[in-house]
Automatic annotation (TrEMBL):
Domain SGNH hydrolase-type esterase: residue ranges: 39-205
Record's protein name: SGNH hydrolase-type esterase domain-containing protein
Similarity remark: Belongs to the 'GDSL' lipolytic enzyme family. Platelet-activating factor acetylhydrolase IB beta/gamma subunits subfamily.
Pfam families in the record: Lipase_GDSL_2
């Protein structure tokens, strides 16, 4: 059985239950918040809210950030099945970014898990716009995790950007390819882009997630 499609609470590796506490806070926030756009996913989403891009541009779109560091596909699936989509107002868009932490799963398992999340979002929110930024490369030097993320991206692009594969799942889902121009010609990633070779620097958020902001603006003004 594919572990990515089995909803699961985030592992409490540190024993302080902070991830569960964050989930409970998000559930309460959803009930009272008047935001129209939800960003949900892992630490790359979580840290986006501290970037200049978020503060100066994204936040003006009435966005809320439900990113949790270390979350995997199955963790986000569990969270949205347990209250994090129960907003008091109708959401206009969901930006979903997750998968890089599923290091023990195959690319197709991760892809299937993301599809399951999309189906759940559609089931609970109806005709909301869903934006899927592609997974980012990781590690200073070439490695199997980079390859895995790249394969996941290939699946996502083929599914959601190829009209031949259009169906009820792909409707109103938009892949934004943000994984380009990160790896340099020598196949390394600079610490000026990813300070720890996984998470983006402040300036890199503007460059890499800028197209996500642009896509949101385009969809919201349709």
């Amino acid at each position: 059985m594919n572990p990515c499609v089995i909803p699961k609470l985030s592992e409490d590796h540190d024993g302080d239950e902070r991830k569960l506490s964050m989930h409970k806070r998000f559930v309460q926030q959803a009930k009272t918040d008047e935001s129209e756009i939800l960003f949900i996913g892992d630490s790359i989403v979580e840290q986006l809210q501290f970037s200049n891009l978020w503060i100066e541009k994204i936040s003006a779109l009435h966005c809320v950030n439900f990113g949790i560091g270390g979350d995997r596909v199955e963790n986000v699936l569990w969270r949205i099945q347990n209250g994090e989509l129960d907003f008091n107002v109708k959401l206009k868009a969901v930006v979903l970014f997750v998968g890089t932490n599923n290091t023990d799963c195959t690319p197709h398992e991760i892809f299937e898990g993301i599809l399951e999340i999309i189906k759940e979002i559609k089931h609970r929110l109806g005709s909301v716009f869903i934006i899927l930024p592609t997974l980012l490369p990781r590690g200073q030097y070439p490695n199997t995790y980079r390859e895995r993320n790249d394969h996941v991206n290939t699946f996502l692009i083929d599914k959601f950007s190829n009209e031949a594969n259009a169906d009820e799942v792909t409707d109103n889902v938009y892949v934004v390819e943000i994984h380009h121009n990160i790896v340099q010609n020598d196949q390394t990633i600079s610490h000026h882009i990813m300070h720890d070779y996984l998470h983006l620097t402040n300036s890199a958020y503007t460059k890499i997630f800028g197209p996500v902001y642009d896509k949101l603006c385009e969809l919201l003004h349709k």
